[in-house]
Design brief:
The complex is a heterodimer of chains A (about 270) and B (about 300). Chain A is α/β, with parallel strands linked by helices and about 270 residues long. Chain A is built from six helices and 16 strands. Chain A has two domains: about 100 residues, Translation factors (Elongation Factor Tu (Ef-tu), domain 3, Beta Barrel), CATH 2.40.30; about 110 residues, Rossmann fold. In chain B, about 30% of the residues lie in helices and about 20% in strands. Chain B is built from eight helices and 18 strands. At the A-B interface, strand 14 of A face strand 5, strand 6 and helix 7 of B.
């Protein structure tokens, strides 16, 4: 159930190049948070510029019983400066109030998996961020993480995934770190190493072009795949039907990314 | 907010046969089917709810992108996606049954026959207080001429729909015309109980880097605070011309905006795009109007309608 509330900024700092992490105290949203859900933030509280809220996926959240006592009730967003809205967000100061709505969307479906299940995560750019809380929640021992970006500056969450003892594969388009090429190319070259007789649960988030490329190469029976979509949104809670994606649903082909998604089964989407 | 019953100003207003407890209505296309807002406030506080526009048959809508943010507003080309009459009655209408506010249905057709058929069907459907006709749709029979752009076509269409329903009939006017007050007069002559205005302004935006339009449909409708001064002028002009109540809308973000519309002649107002930015806008507007009346020692909102 989404809540509209005023969060309080605890920290807001640059981590590298265009990437920032903001920490916001908002216990009512944190209580309801699940991997893959997102929030909408009003960047400017006193003006109509930027006009619409901005959607953000969640990097980390600390519920009431979390061992890190000081962080309880806060959530972290790892964001990239892509336009005026996110640029303005870098100026949020500690103690500042932030008008936010969340948690929104359906989130990832976590099937009851044995700890021996094979999990594959593929993230492009900031897309990898929403996969981190999922990896934590899945708690699998056989975790294969593919992280992609344009350059080494766009490779995110590396330290976090190392802590989860995952097998990490890195691809950069300019070859400045790891494999040279797209993260999907890298996944293809590594795929042969996977056991053919075991199912793989695949979760992916990234730009539409990346997900399209993934959909082209995957065999659905071997890889049970969920993808989290990134789109422009107006409201974020299902009212305007502005953020639709074309699906194979015969009755309602255009489904709302914010409400029916952002997570879809890979085979549901019409990748045109 | 004042809770004192005797000190509380009277916000009620009558539109046709509908008695609204306050003049704040949420606009079609910006409030989904209402259930999307139930987590944010008690919907019973609203004057009335107008859900997404309904056509006879389901409509799939336009391809993405459907939304683009502009300065002080948004462009949209949703394409009137809706489940159609039967889908609406089966899946969406039951939600409104227990509500203690008015449900006004926004509807549209491709032909006069479709408009009449829909009005007739909604007339026989329970729990509906009134109808709002969206006439800014291309007339398929007349090669895509928009009903709302021709006063004679507007008149004929309203006359025909009027005969098909006893429900309060509101005609929603398009601002994309030379003289909107002429269209309002045609709607009044045709038998409308009220007119609502304005719908969105036809508009577009281009991405100079991809060299493509920002909307999948190329052209969309502009709404939000960017259009407010024009909408206000149009409401004022229409109020001079017709005797039936005028429902004003166009970029209302706060109570002060709503009061401006009332002062130029609107009996009620609609909150549209603002719902998408702040889902509680309508409630804030109701509280703000009340506060304004109390501060200015006005006991009835009706005293502010059409000051000039």
């Amino acid at each position: 159930m989404p809540i509209q509330t005023k969060g309080i900024v605890a920290k807001n700092r640059k981590i590298k190049s265009l990437y920032f992490v903001i920490e916001i105290y908002c216990p009512s949203i944190v209580r309801e948070m699940k991997p893959g859900k997102f929030i909408m933030i009003k960047i400017s509280s006193h003006s109509n510029y930027p006009f619409l809220r901005r959607p953000f996926s969640i990097y980390k959240s600390y519920p009431q019983r979390h061992p890190e006592k000081k962080k309880r009730g806060t959530l972290l967003i790892l964001y990239k400066v892509v336009g005026k809205g996110t640029q303005m967000m870098t100026e949020f100061k500690k103690g500042q109030k932030v008008d936010m709505i969340g948690p929104l969307g359906n989130g990832f479906t976590l099937p009851p998996l044995p700890s021996s299940a094979n999990i594959v995560l593929i993230g492009g750019g900031v897309g990898i961020v929403s996969l981190y809380p999922l990896a934590e929640a899945l708690g699998s021992k056989k975790l294969f993480v593919f992280i992609g970006g344009k350059t080494r500056n766009d490779i995110l969450c590396l330290r976090d995934f190392k802590k989860l003892n995952s097998n990490i594969f890195i691809a950069t388009e300019d070859g400045s770190q790891g494999f040279k090429g797209t993260v999907i190319d890298l996944f293809l070259s590594e795929r042969k190493k996977f056991n053919k007789n075991e199912p793989y649960y695949l979760y992916s988030c990234g730009p539409l072009e990346m997900l399209k490329a993934l959909a082209k190469v995957l065999k659905p029976k071997r890889f049970i795949s969920q993808v989290s979509l990134e789109t422009r949104m107006a409201c974020g809670f299902g009212a305007c039907w502005g953020c639709v994606v074309k699906t194979k649903d015969l009755k309602t082909p255009y489904q709302r990314v914010c409400k029916n998604g952002p997570v879809f089964n890979l085979e549901e989407i019409v990748w045109e | 907010m004042m809770v004192n019953a005797t000190g509380s100003p009277d916000l009620s207003i009558k539109i046709g046969k509908i008695k609204l407890k306050n003049p704040v209505i949420v606009a079609s296309g910006t409030f989904g089917f209402a259930e999307e807002y139930e987590d944010f406030f008690d919907l019973n506080h609203l004057g009335a709810i107008i859900p997404k526009g309904i056509s006879l048959k389901p409509m799939v809508g336009n391809p993405s992108p459907r939304i683009f943010e502009t300065e002080g507003g948004i462009l949209n080309s949703i394409g009137l996606q809706n489940p159609g009459f039967e889908g609406f009655v089966k899946d969406k209408l039951p939600y409104f049954k227990k509500m203690r506010t008015h449900l006004i249905i926004n509807f549209f057709g491709n032909t006069q026959k479709e408009y009449v058929e829909l009005a007739r069907r909604f007339d026989g459907t329970p729990n509906i207080s009134g109808l709002e006709m969206n006439i800014s749709c291309p007339n398929v029979q007349q090669c895509g001429v928009v009903f709302s752009s021709d006063p004679k076509m507007t008149y004929r269409l309203v006359c025909a729909v009027r005969k098909a329903t006893k429900l309060t009939l509101i005609v929603k006017l398009s601002p994309n015309v030379t003289d909107i007050s002429l269209m309002a007069k045609s709607a009044e002559d045709g038998g409308a109980n009220a007119v609502s205005l304005v719908n969105t302004f036809r508009a577009m935006a281009i991405n100079i880097y991809s060299r493509k339009p920002e909307l999948g449909n190329i052209i969309g409708g502009l709404s939000g605070p960017a259009i407010k001064p024009i909408a206000l002028r149009m409401v004022w002009e229409v109020s001079q011309r017709v005797k039936i109540p005028v429902i004003g809308m166009g970029g209302i973000m706060k109570a002060e905006d709503a009061i401006e519309f009332i002062m130029v002649g609107a009996s009620a107002i609609q909150i549209g795009t603002a719902n998408l930015v702040n889902p509680r806008t309508a409630i804030d507007v109701i509280d703000g109007i009340k506060k304004y009346l109390i501060q200015n020692k006005i006991n009835r909102l009706q005293k502010l309608i059409g000051l000039f």
